[in-house]
Amino acid sequence: MNRSGDLTETHAVGLLRGMLEIPSPSYQERALADFLANAMVDLGFQARVDVVGNVIGVVERGDGPTLMLLGHLDTVPGELPVRAEDGKLYGRGAVDAKGPLAAMICAAAGAVDFPGRIVVIGVVEEETPGSRGAMAIRATHDRPDALIVGEPSGWSSVVLGYKGKLDLRYTVTCPATHPSNPAPKASELAVDCWAALVDLLGPDADHGVFSQPGATLVQLNADLISATADLSVRTPPGFDVDMLLHRLRGRLPAGNLEVLNSVTACRVGRATPTVRALVSGIRRLHAHPRLLVKTATSDMNTLAEVWDIPMATYGPGDSRLDHADTEHIVLSDYLRGIDVLSVALSELAHLPVHDRAPQGSLR
Predict the structure, then answer these.
(1) Do 16 and 41 fall within a single domain?
(2) What are the residue numbers of the active site?
(3) What is the per-residue pLDDT across 38-92, written as a single tens digit (0 to 9) for each?
(4) Which neighbouring-strand residues pair with 307?
(5) Domain end among 205, 230, 262
């Protein structure tokens, strides 16, 4: 398999292995960001690390459209030994989501005929409630003409959308009392809050169904005097978050319900140019494309809240291995992912260019 430009399979696999050998749990991504900035410079990018720790690489090849490829640097905690075995590369982040990000870097480096501007970004803190890296990108960068978010879809699948997410914290304190006192205890009120949330979402609530919400009791610390409960709701498109909060607060006789984070669901159409471009790449490799929706949340949600542009999520890797102790990527799938992205870049080369203010080469 020959890459466009000078990028070889050996270089592509070496880049991913180098990324896996640098631990980058959330809030500790700087070493990986520095590594990738240097690697991208070697591949012909202009590159830097921004003030929040995102690594940004840009290739300028003309006055055509700006395409953004955005993945994340951080992983969940827990290092895994990096090893290659039976055509697979093991390591924390191989799937979620260093594999997709490495594929984006390789495809962009090889797109020597792209007539515009390609911006490749590795963001910090995607695995945290605040998504600080993506929030900084949407606040400081002009909207691109198209966006591909790097998450493991499987090399022959494209993700059209994700559920939203509502993270809540309920806190309550009660006067000290004997356990036999019939007055409500803090621990009981926290459990009642969880029960009220489940009741309000209804009997059809299901994490596995894209059109339905799903609730999780993330953490509960409670005794008779004080309690804190962290609750999370995955929300489908069109879900009325304000109404849920109003009704839930109406069920709580005491305490405080705080919104820690809220991001809306997103979904794009099958005919979106970014989706069509990725589908074309998959078909070019003689596979039947699958179009998926996900019941989790990604940085696509964060960016879709402010950018009304063609977008989709794509990346090699089996998402069932996200966060697993056996996390690995099949190297042939990784290389196919680079090829799919390379075709997609070519397909997106003639998108119309949005009006935007002049910007520096690394914005």
Answers:
(1) yes
(2) 74, 126
(3) 999 999 999 999 999 999 999 999 999 999 999 999 999 998 999 999 999 999 9
(4) none
(5) 262
Distance of CA 120 to the CA centre of its chain: 14
Residue 112 tokens read as 């020597």
Under 8 Å between Cβ of 256 and 220: no
Mean pLDDT value across the chain = 94
Domain assignment present for 2: no
Is residue 16 located within the same domain as residue 101?
yes
- Domain boundaries, position 253: 164-262
Record the pTM: 0.91
For residue 357, count other CB atoms closer than 10 A to its CB: 6
Considering its fold, how many domains does the chain have in total?
2
Beta strand 311-314 with 146-150 is: parallel
Q: What distance in Å separates the CA atoms of residue 56 and residue 105, rounded to the nearest whole number? A: 11
Which residue, 100, 170, 96, is CA-closest to 322? 96
Calculate the alpha carbon distances from 287 to 102, 120, 274 in Å: 22, 26, 18
- Residue 311 phi/psi, 5-degree rounding, is -150, 160
Phi/psi at 300 (nearest 5 deg)? -60, -40
